[in-house]
Amino acid sequence: MCRWCSVAALLLALVPGVWADYPGVGRPATEAELALWDSDIGPDLQRLPAARGSVSEGRAIYAAQCAACHGDDGRATDIFYALVGGVTAADVARGRVAGLQGAQPNDVSTLMMLPTLTTLLDYTARAMPFGAGGSLSNDEVFAVTAYLLHLGGVVDGDFVLDRSSAELAQQRLPNRNGFSTDHGLWPGAAAADGGMGNGGIPEPDSARCMADCDP
């Protein structure tokens, strides 16, 4: 069966209404199959896998799997945007990257924008290395992440990333305080309370302002 046919069959199996309307098409997904997709981790770090990776281990993995696209120092821009760069010690201390103000896209690195550690862990696990996404073990993902944080000046060379040290890494991300949830979707404070949101209730059907909008 073709790859996309398999995906379509799995999706049909996951939707009860479709399964009922088209008997014999697809099959119910097994618990093991669902578990392969259920790998998301929220920013609270509560569902981190029992993995471990050091900066030194990550250096070797990065050299073998990542440097061809991202450069030896993570700053190459020939193929993708730079992974690291543009961050100062002051940024790490306050959790806001001053260099983002007025920066052009080519001057922005991944580390400059990153608000949560799990964003980096999740993307690396799902999509890297290029062309072989999902091939790294959890330990390898943690090790590469530790090395990238070291390249960016966030952690020391003897740092080991695991469940117990993840919070420390999160608290040192240069742009951890650079994102706001006070907006018109979720979960910003309501306008009556001085915010831009609606008190935490998503409004996907609200009307869009196209002219003479409030600031």
How would you describe what is shown here?
The chain is mainly α. The chain has 2 domains: 3-37, no CATH class; 52-170, Cytochrome Bc1 Complex, Chain D, domain 2 (Orthogonal Bundle), CATH 1.10.760. The protein has helices at 3-14, 16-21, 31-37, 55-65, 67-70, 89-94, 110-113, 117-127, 138-151, 166-170; strands at 52-54, 160-162. Helix 4 (55-65) crosses helix 9 (138-151) and helix 8 (117-127) packs across helix 9. The longest helix is centred in the C-terminal third of the chain and has 14 residues, at 138-151. It is globular, with a radius of gyration of 21 Å. The N and C termini lie far apart (54 Å). The model has no long low-confidence stretch (mean pLDDT 85).
Share of β-strand residues:
under 5%
- What is the CATH topology descriptor of the largest domain? Cytochrome Bc1 Complex, Chain D, domain 2
Question: So what's the overall shape?
Answer: globular
Q: What CATH architecture of the largest domain do you see? A: Orthogonal Bundle
What is the CA-atom radius of gyration, in angstroms? 21 Å
- Structural domains: how many: 2
**Secondary-structure class:** mainly alpha
The CATH homology group name of the largest domain: Cytochrome c-like domain
Overall helicity:
25-40%
Give a count of the beta strands, DSSP E runs of length 2 or more: 2
The side-by-side strand order for the widest beta sheet comes to 1-2
Largest β sheet strand count, sense and barrel closure: 2 strands, antiparallel
Overall mean pLDDT score? 85
Tally of helical segments: 10
